[in-house]
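Homework help thread (please don't just give me the answer)

Our assignment gives two proteins as sequence + structure token strings and asks us to describe the second one. The first is just a warm-up. Here they are:
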Amino acid sequence: MKYPLLTGMFLLFSFFSFSQTKVPDTLVMETKTGEKVILIGNDLNVFKNMKTDSLIRKALQAVEDSLMQRKLDTLKKKKLSMEERYYKVLKKHQIFAFQPLIGAGLIRDKVSPSLGLALDFAPQRQDYYSKLYPGFYTFINVAINACYLFDTDGADRHKTFSQIFVEASFGNRYNNKISNYQYQYFDELSIGLGYLVKQSGDYFEGNTFKLFGTIVPNNSFIRIKPELYLTHDFKKIFPGISVGIKLR
């Protein structure tokens, strides 16, 4: 052996490295129904401040995530049929869909009914019925929305003033009938921007924009829409809110 000193140092270093390798600690817990859950960690002390139910819940969530990932990997490797991938197949899968808008809101201190028509663009609408991962799809929405304000003119005659906004928004719609994951409180979430293209009366001044969000609670037929109006070329800002009926 040409280099006995180097060889000896290498063996000595390997021995110390191996001897310092820590064997992971194992914690075995038994559930009320008799099943056993095995947790492995570098130090059992990290489990001391956690409740048993919390540990089991985290372990089960990890298993569910692992199974979900396996299903996704299967999808990538194997081209499944529509019946295998979706529990419902859309017969007329159209990426565009019209959506009527009916509701009423409160703009500053004025009650305002509204009517409109929206066009949805959703190329992955079929994913709403997916078996392989929590069903949802992303949409882009363009709408014409008219709101009506009731007031009196200079001669104290009651008049209706119409305000027409062009709106654009994007967000997600979730299928909570099959999803047990993080969006079970909402069926829809989106954000958007609107611009006033036609106004009557003097309620708004100059260029008027509005920022808004859309929230549809789980299993609900109402659409809640918080709003923020920026008028008079951004010199005046005030809030609003509207509630619409979910027709489709």
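The one we have to describe:
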Amino acid sequence: MSAAPRFAASGLAEPPSRHAARPRDLLIVDDHPIVLHGFRLLAEEAGIARVHEARDIVGAYRAFHRHRPAVVVTDLSFRDDGLSGLSLIRRIRALEPEARILALSMHRDPVIVARVLDCGALGFVVKDAPAASFLDALEAVTNGRSYLPHAIAIEVAMLNAGARDRPLANLSSREMQILVLIGKGKPYDEIAEILTLNYRSVVNATAALRCKLAVGSMAELMQIAAAQAGAVS
């Protein structure tokens, strides 16, 4: 992970260009109707002509494939599907490598934010940020610039230096998804169904999690998983 100057941050972003582009259309992905409505209003305030909506990752991928919006704004957590927003970001970037994606979440864990960036999102903003911050983030991402709140940018930049002391930083995106679902009390078969994996893959991944996190029992893993699940709910 590169240092903080890679990211534009609230209050530290490059000054907007006189010719800063506005997205011609936008896809907003969230499973809460009130949140969708609020972000639609903000997008329209920013002068965006067409705003598409989706409430789950399947609908979002289909909407992206059909409309090819200039920018995608997506939540990370969808009901009981853990961090499925990460897989949506990866799938969109696989379909369109130049896709410009802004991720939203209520949590601020730099490990998760780093995963968001690794999956291909260009920016990240917390849901409880002021509307002006969302509009700043949207403008930055629309114009191909990275965006992170300043405090989170610093924490993400420091992850590499402290990776040995933060074993969660060494987990893959899939392992993070499984960990969150374990924390939500999901059994192996349900996790397999949610993530479209076979049962044995989930069992093996759980064993790998115990090894990477250096825990001796499933009970210890559940404690870590519950804490992580609370951070992303």
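TA reply:
I won't write it for you, but here's a hint about the kind of observation we're looking for: Residues 2 and 141 are 18 Å apart (CA to CA).
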